[in-house]
Amino acid sequence: MQRIVIVGAGVAGLMTGLFLRNHGAEVAILDRGPPGREASWAGGGILSPLYPWRYPEAVTRLATLSQREYPLFCGRLREETGIDPQWVQSGLLMLDGDREAALAWQDREMNPVFALGPVAIHECEPGLGAGFEGGLWMPAVAQVRNPRLMKALLAALERRGVTVRGGCEVVGIEERAGRVSGVRLATGGRVDADAVVITAGAWSGRLLEPLMPAVDVRPVRGQMILFRAEPGVLQRIVLYQDHYVIPRRDGRVLCGSTVEEAGFEKATTGEARALLHEAATGLVPRLADYPVEAHWAGLRPGTPAGIPYLGEHPALEGLYLNCGHFRNGVVLGLASARLVADRILGLPTEIPLAPYGVDAPR
After folding, report:
1. 124 belongs to a structural domain
2. Most-buried pick from 165, 230, 253, 268 (CB within 10 A)?
3. 43 backbone φψ class: left, alpha, beta (φ>0; ψ -120 to 50)
4. Three-class DSSP labels, 152-220
């Protein structure tokens, strides 16, 4: 039985661990903080890249695979754990964007995008404010409530006997004769392994610094606010000028997000709170009547072109990567985890991993 250590307990790490365990591997998942509480928890859970036609084909392929599998995957998690990740097909209404590029992408990807006029956008989302001249409507786009997804994944792993250790910082990768042999902990201890998977989000690049070729993953801060609204205030995910509002099933509405080069500083700011509040109430005026219940920040793992690193690192046998998903960790996470798990297990992958390699162009 393979002993596999996964470094990072976000969506990538937990899903990779679940797929590996389902195939009989012995899995331990280690995280520097509380499991499932970094970028995977902090994001919005939209199951589509924003303005998807702006992304390279490598990102689109992963998104398409994940979108196909998410409904059944979430249903199985709900049945097994009793925790509902709340997969909801809300649709995505974009009030800006290149219509010509969007419709060309639709024809190429067979993913419906409809151009709507000023009357039709208000029929699509009655809560929308005035002054918008039209938009692009993607009815197939869904969302998950990502904190609930994290809880369900942790519960499913616990049922399978997988160890998930929080407060367990990995500071180095151990090797013997050109092959990974385990990981070194901040406490001075080590954990032995036949294979190691780096799913450490924004911290992945720092952990992999000693290895060449380099992995370009950097922290990019994003801030969000949450309105304690009521059901019916908003029905669709709405996007405008890179800000979005997301309706949850219980009526709460998220607004995000900022994109800030702030290093590993995760503090929230009053400036961002004001910016997000203005963006949200500009899109949905009724939100001004409801209190902001929470304001938080997360660190995304930024990469060139948003293309993640997947597969084995060429410098060290037995070291695998599943990191660098930038703003799309949840939507790309399901496909990424399955592909990396298949590669570790020696199974054929549904799509080639070459576009996600360390040496691949980005």
Report:
1. no
2. 253
3. beta
4. HHHHHHHHCCCEEECCCCEEEEEEECCEEEEEEECCCCEEECCEEEECCHHHHHHHCCCCCCCCCCEEE
What is the C-alpha end-to-end distance of the chain, expressed in Å? 36
Give dist(CA 198, CA 205) in Å, integer: 10
With beta carbons less than 8 A apart as the criterion, state whether 143 and 163 touch. Answer: no
312 pLDDT tier (thresholds 50, 70, 90): very high
Task: Answer yes or no: are the C-beta atoms of 238 and 284 closer than 8 Å.
Answer: yes
CB 196 within 8 A of CB 17: no
Please tell me the pTM assigned to this model.
0.96
Q: How distant, in Å, are the alpha carbons of 1, 8, 250 from that of 86?
A: 35, 24, 10
| SS3 call for 230 | coil
**What SS3 class is residue 266?**
coil
Rg (CA), the chain: 20
CATH number of residue 210's parent domain = 3.50.50.60
Closest C-alpha to 5, from 226, 141, 162 = 162
Name residue, tokens 């994944």.
153
Residue 126 resides in a domain = no
Give the distance between the most distant pair of CA atoms in the chain. 67
User: Within the chain, how many helices (H) and strands (E) appear?
Assistant: 9, 17
* DSSP state at residue 325: -
Q: Which tokens hold the place of 175?
A: 């090797």
Is 72:148 a contact under the CB 8 Å cutoff? no
Nearest partner of 136 among 119, 115, 117, judged by Cα: 115
Q: Is residue 277 part of a domain?
A: no
Q: What is the pLDDT of residue 159?
A: 97
- 78 is in which domain, residue-wise? 1-89+141-217+303-362
Q: Is residue 180 part of a domain?
A: yes
Residue 1 has pLDDT above 80, yes or no: no
E strand or H helix that includes residue 239: strand 237-240
| Per-residue model confidence as pLDDT tens digits over 189-206 | 999 999 999 999 999 999
Rounded CA separation 344/342 (Å): 5
Number of structural domains, the chain? 1
